[in-house]
Design goal:
Subunit structure: Homodimer.
Structural class: alpha/beta
Pfam family, one: NAD_synthase
Strand order of the largest sheet: 2-1-3-4-9-8-7-5-6
Number of domains: 3
Oligomer: single chain
CATH superfamily of the largest domain: Class I glutamine amidotransferase (GATase) domain
InterPro entries: Class_I_gatase-like, GATASE, GMP_synth_C, GMP_synth_GATase, GMP_synthase, GMPS_ATP_PPase_dom, NAD/GMP_synthase, Rossmann-like_a/b/a_fold
Helix content: 25-40%
Enzyme class: ligase
GO molecular function, one term: GMP synthase activity
CATH architecture of the largest domain: 3-Layer(aba) Sandwich
Strand content: 25-35%
Mean pLDDT: 89
Shape: globular
Largest sheet: 9 strands, mixed
Number of helices: 14
Radius of gyration: 25 Å
Length: about 525
């Protein structure tokens, strides 16, 4: 079966948890993807989804500039699930009434069921179920043909359903962990209402992707951008499975790598894989390009341009190379492309940083995967755990962990601090417990006292986050003694640093990397 023959599409109205909806659906082994709420009706028809989800969002349906999808989507005969704003939009567009609630509902709430079919199959009307609400409006009058399926203290229609058509809506968020019946609700929609089959697995993904790469490439040669990170390693392994010796991997030392990184990576590729790897030392080129550059977007794009320049030069040497494979992931695409007419969060070096004049066609086999899916894919491909469970490291390297201008002196300081962070995280066994942990060099200096002498030196920030797919993240609650050891070592062992701070911001509103 084609792994994309059954899919559920999510129309995004601006919710911070839209990506969680996609993840929860994929966890049921059904493919899902996110699109802007402005997705044309003809595109929806072409995609032939088994179901449509209307996400939540911060707007009110009665606002003059409220985001509205094409109401004709309710004429397609496709099941629709509205979540929070999505449920209110369904109500509004089908003739019901949505009004500002007398009392808003934010946070945990008890749900009482009045119907135990559809979304609530397998549940009972005697129990109260904890759900997570986040809305200031509520459904006052259901559209014609709709009835309430559940109520809460302040929502007489906390869930609604059409009595004949496959239209359902909930005022709560089934995608968040605080809704204890969330997975059950989504499963009932996916399998009970949409009639999907669980065909989205990494094994099936490999089979279909290998065939797609072979058909696209034919007898041509492919180069792969290999950084040593999980994404590029899995990309290389997948493309190599498809075309074997037609693939040449190119590792570019951009001068922004961590201490000993290049040497250890080359040793790994030579000893643990069958990949053909070319090692390019481009430190002087990249540091020259970054001279006096302080804007983070400009840094990312310059680094992206530099990579492409080098890849195309190497492709010419190899001859008959028409394709570049790279490890772009779904979160990279989401963050680099605006869905709602606003500015993108940031340009990823392998998405927003690519020049339009690039002559090589792209192969991005991981473009629709989240990070944990990539790790599962890597294990399925037979890559060793040491390659799969490395913490993510950004393609632009330490260049975006140095706030302000990138210089050899500042790189030297950050590299020393970075070594200490990784050593202590691994010794404490927190390295595998957290998503990512690293040091950031700030563009400020502060007064300190060392050996009874006044100092005026750099500040290093520690960043450690917990996450599943990097779309959302929370700061890690590391033990005080671990933070103390890291701070003490950095201040004592790294010349030029006299202060260490710990970043306790989550994503959103912050990003994981500082630039």
């Amino acid at each position: 079966m084609d792994i994309h023959s059954e899919k559920i599409i999510i129309l995004d109205f601006g919710s911070q948890t839209t990506q969680l909806i996609a993840r929860r659906i994929r966890e049921q082994k059904v493919y899902s993807e996110i699109h802007p709420y402005t997705l044309p009706l003809e595109k929806i028809k072409e995609m032939k989804p088994k179901g449509i989800v209307l996400s939540g969002g911060p707007a009110s349906v009665y606002d003059d500039d409220a985001p509205l999808s094409d109401p004709a989507l309710f004429d397609l005969g496709i099941p629709v699930l509205g979540i929070c704003y999505g449920a209110q939009l369904m109500t509004h567009q089908l003739g019901g009434k949505v009004e500002r609630a007398v009392k808003r509902e934010f946070g945990k709430s008890d749900l009482e069921l009045v119907y135990t079919g559809g979304l609530f199959a397998g549940m009972d009307t005697e129990s109260r179920y904890q759900v997570w609400m986040s809305h200031g409006d509520r459904i006052e009058t259901a559209p014609k043909g709709f009835v309430a399926s559940a109520i809460s203290e302040h929502s007489p229609m906390a869930a609604i359903r059409h009595e004949e058509k496959h239209f359902v809506g909930v005022q709560f968020h089934p995608e968040v962990a605080h809704t204890l019946i969330g997975n059950d609700v989504l499963r009932n929609f996916i399998f009970g209402i949409c009639g999907c089959e669980p065909s989205w697995t990494m094994h099936s993904f490999i089979e279909s992707t290998v065939v797609a790469i072979q058909e696209k490439v034919g007898s041509d040669k492919v180069i792969c951008a290999l950084s040593g990170g999980v994404d590029s390693a899995v990309t290389a392994a997948l493309v190599h499975r498809a075309i074997g010796e037609q693939l040449t991997c190119i590792y570019v030392n951009n001068g922004l790598m961590r201490t000993g990184e290049t040497k250890s990576l080359m040793k790994f590729f030579q000893e643990k894989t069958h990949l053909k790897v070319i090692d390019i030392d481009a430190e002087e080129y990249f540091l020259g390009e970054l001279h006096s550059i302080v804007d983070p977007e400009e840094k990312r794009k310059l680094i992206g341009y530099g990579f492409i320049k080098i890849f195309e030069e190497e492709a010419k040497k190899l001859g008959d190379v028409n394709y570049l494979a790279q490890g772009t992931l779904y979160p990279d695409v989401i963050e680099s492309v605006s869905f709602r007419g606003t500015a993108p969060i940031k340009s990823h070096h392998n998405v927003g940083g690519l020049p339009d004049i690039m002559k090589l066609d792209l192969i991005e086999p991981l473009r629709e995967l989240f990070k944990d899916e990539v790790r599962e894919l890597g294990l399925e491909l037979g890559l060793p755990e040491e390659a799969i469970y490395r913490q993510p490291f950004p393609g632009p390297g330490l260049g975006i962990r140095i706030m302000g201008e990138v210089t050899k002196e500042r790189l030297h300081i950050l590299r020393q601090a970075d070594v200490i962070v990784l050593e202590e995280m691994k010794k404490s066994e927190y390295y595998r417990k957290v998503w990512q942990s690293f040091a950031v060099l700030l563009p400020i200096q502060t007064v300190g006292v060392m050996g009874d002498e006044r100092t005026y030196e750099h500040v290093v920030a520690l960043r450690s986050v917990d996450s599943v797919d990097a779309m959302t993240a929370d700061w890690s609650r590391l033990p005080y003694d671990l933070l103390g050891r890291i701070s003490n070592r950095i201040i004592n062992e790294v010349r030029g640093v006299n202060r260490v701070v710990f970043d306790i911001s989550s994503k959103p509103p912050s990003t994981i990397e500082w630039e």
